[in-house]
Amino acid sequence: MTNRDSRLSRSADLDPLGPLRDPHDPGCDVFLTGAVFLDIIFTGLDSAPVRGTESWARGMGSSPGGVANMATALARLGLRTSLAAAFGDDHYGEYCWDALEHGEGIDLSMSRTIPGWHSPVTVSMAYEGERTMVSHGHEAPPPAGPDPFPQCPPRTRAAVASLAPGRADGWIGEAARRGARIFADVGWDETGRWDLGALADLEHCEAFLPNAGEAMRYTRTECPRAAARALAERVPVAVVTLGPEGSYAVDSRTGETAEVAGIAVDELDPTGAGDVYVAGFVTGTLAGWPLADRLAFAGLTAALSVQEFGGSLSAPGWPEVAHWWQTAPDGLRARYGFLDELLPRDAARAPRRRAVPTIGFRHFA
């Protein structure tokens, strides 16, 4: 195993693609790019902050955020993950780099630290099952060379992209042409037009995973399931997430549909749950699981993540999945029975890095 392969697999507790791996396969399972934030999360607020007053939170955590949420979730599920991102030349940037590369085994060979540029920061306040965020940052200076990455992009099994109206990212089409399977989500359309035709890179996607509100607006439908069927006319697999209710998917290649209910949990912080969901779905897809099992696994990983602080460091790995399965309610054991053969019998719950109320202590016990 090369040093790079060792770094990419260091954080894996189980390799979901192990039976499928071949010496001629790409060294990278999933590639992604985007902005890395330093997230500061306040939880335990009884209500939204009121102007002119001081609010005290019962909980606080700090962790890498932004695209780091997705990268960490993928790596913790055993996928060899490569991230291209700009990092600030400050303590926040140093902390995020260390947390991702050394803490999670994510390949940052295509990332860069920019002298004199400070890290973007988001403060997230969680209350009443929702969150309010305040962010600050400046766009990173472009690289000196003609391409956004040293290799544009690397050879990879899959790539995860975030689509935006009116924007085409050249690397997405190039990755698809090189054989990568493209999975995409989408953010809120600030233009208010909600025009599917404006999502230029949708044509390259194997799977599109919006939430119910986004899906219905883009398809002009009043039902998430109708929205999924409409989206399946544009992409091979359309997945619409329904929040606590679960998710619904349509595979237009086979005509298969699947719907899986959500798992009720005591929610601490919903930050990054959507990213964890996508990571779970990507994992199941690359491993060749049935559509319903992919939805179930994605929903499970998202449910486990909201019980911890922060977006990236709340993501579960296989030990957390195994622990849940060992104590799963009887009513869910049939639906999640596929985990029984997948999980190792002796999965130990080794300490995992979690968000704490600082960017790092000087000394560790």
Strand order of the largest sheet: 4-1-9-10-11-12-13-14
Number of strands: 14
How large, in whole angstroms, is the Cα Rg?
20 Å
Structure annotation, total helices: 11
**Biggest sheet layout:** 8 strands, mixed
* Alpha-beta content class: alpha/beta
Q: Please indicate the percent range of residues in DSSP E strands (runs of 2 or more).
A: 15-25%
Q: Enumerate the spans where pLDDT stays under 50 for 5 or more consecutive residues.
A: 1-11
Instruction: Bin the helical content.
Output: 25-40%
Would you list the SSEs in sequence order as H and E? HEEEHEEHEEEEHEEHHEEEHHHHH
Morphology call: globular
Report what the structure shows.
The protein is of the alpha/beta class. It is built from eleven helices and 14 strands. It has helices at 3-9, 67-76, 91-104, 170-177, 212-219, 224-231, 273-286, 291-305, 318-326, 330-333, 338-342; strands at 28-33, 36-43, 59-66, 81-84, 86-88, 112-114, 121-127, 130-136, 156-163, 181-186, 205-208, 237-241, 247-251, 256-260. An eight-stranded mixed β-sheet has the order 4-1-9-10-11-12-13-14, sandwiched between helices. A hairpin with a 5-residue loop joins β12 and β13 (247-251). α2 (67-76) packs across α7 (273-286), α5 crosses α6 and α7 packs antiparallel against α8 (291-305). It is globular. Mean pLDDT is 89; it is low at 1-11.
Write the layout of secondary structure elements.
Layout: H1 3-9, E1 28-33, E2 36-43, E3 59-66, H2 67-76, E4 81-84, E5 86-88, H3 91-104, E6 112-114, E7 121-127, E8 130-136, E9 156-163, H4 170-177, E10 181-186, E11 205-208, H5 212-219, H6 224-231, E12 237-241, E13 247-251, E14 256-260, H7 273-286, H8 291-305, H9 318-326, H10 330-333, H11 338-342
Parallel strand pairs: 1-4, 1-9, 2-7, 5-6, 9-10, 10-11, 11-12
Antiparallel strand pairs: 2-3, 7-8, 12-13, 13-14
Helix pairs in contact: 2-7, 5-6, 7-8
